[in-house]
Every structure is written in structure tokens, then in C-alpha cells.
Amino acid sequence: MIAYIQGTLTYINDQSVVVETMGVGYEIVCPNPFVFQHQLNEQVKIVTFHHVREDAQILFGFKNEEEKRLFTKLISVSGIGPKSALAILANVHIADFAAAVEREDDKFLTGFPGVGKKTARQIILDLKGKLGSIFTLEAVGNISQEDAGEDTANQTVSEAVEALKALGYTDKELNPVAAELRKEGAADADKLIHKALRMLAK
Fold it and tell me: Where in the cell is it found (predicted)?
């Protein structure tokens, strides 16, 4: 199994990044690829999960081991595939997710894309009491306010990018714009969309 990839970050889009090492470019699918935006064309180390199935081999990438462990726990739940697991990771802090599972908060869990009431109950059934041993209080405590702000900004930019794609813009057009939007730090997707449209019109 491939535990991590270390090399030069050469490309980012809304679903994946490409890391080049020893002349080989590895495409890595991530929950929030643009969290690595500030390291574009620099050396990175991305924690990976090598997902093998009959018709494909996919590398999934994460910021740290905690994210990877939660991903592996999620895909062990009946009704949760890699796509749904990534959607959850893209929109939550590990501490918040673990707490919601422990308090059996169906409403919180059904707020994620692709998670209905039945799947939320299955998550609780399969994972309650099992996350604390992996995500220690010390590890959870390491999530800083700065990290929380970054994740919120990343989510807002992702929403803005998806809205712009619906208007017909391509990844090639949007990638440099997304990088600028992340510097904005605005929490309002509408403001980011208006700013992006002004940039694209130039």
C-alpha cells in the first residue's frame, strides 16, 4: 500500500492534485484539494490511501493521518463509499464529527451530501465508541482556530467554484481564480462569485 506521496505539487483542480516524484506524476483525489494551494510548485507530503477495486486503482489524499483514519472508518460503514466519505471530510472537523456520532446526532449527520437518515443511523451503529481510540483528545485539540478558519474558507470557495462551473466556466479558467479567492477570506459565497466574475471578465 502507498502510505504517502512526497514530491512537487504541480497541479490542482476541484477534485484532485498531481504530485510529481522521480519523474512520475501521481493524481491524488482529496476532500479539499485547494488546502494545498499555497504549496503549488513546492515540495509536499500528502498522506494517502490506496483504494484498489476491480476496475480502477485510486489514490486518496489527506492533510494528516487523522483524516485518513476517519476516511477508512467511514468507508467501512454500509452505505458509505469513497465519494460520500470525501464529501463528509470536506465539510467537517474530525472533533465535531466524532462528537456527533457519540451523541447520536442524526440531524448533524444527515446534513452531509448523500447521507440520509438510514445511513446516519448506520454510521452511529458502526462507529459509536470506536472513534475515541483513534482520534485522541490531544489530537483533536491540535485543530487550531486558524485551521478552522481555513476549512471554512475552503468550503466557501468550493461552493463558489461549483456555481461558476454551472455557468459554463472550465477548470482551466477557474483554477487561478480560486487561488485568488482563497486570499479573500470572505465567508459569503455570493461575494466570492461576484469577485470571480469580475476577474474572469478582465
Answer: Cytoplasm
Report, in this order, helix, strand and coil percent for the chain, each rounded to 5. 50, 20, 30
pLDDT at 149 over 60: no
Please state the domain extents for the chain: 4-62, 65-141, 145-201
How confident is the model over 62-118, as pLDDT tens digits?
Answer: 999 989 999 999 999 999 999 999 999 988 888 888 888 989 999 999 988 889 999
Q: Which residues lie closer than 8 Å to 57 by C-beta, 6 or more apart?
A: 50, 51
**Pairwise CA distance, residues 48 & 145, whole Å:** 25
Which residue is it, cell 457519540? 102
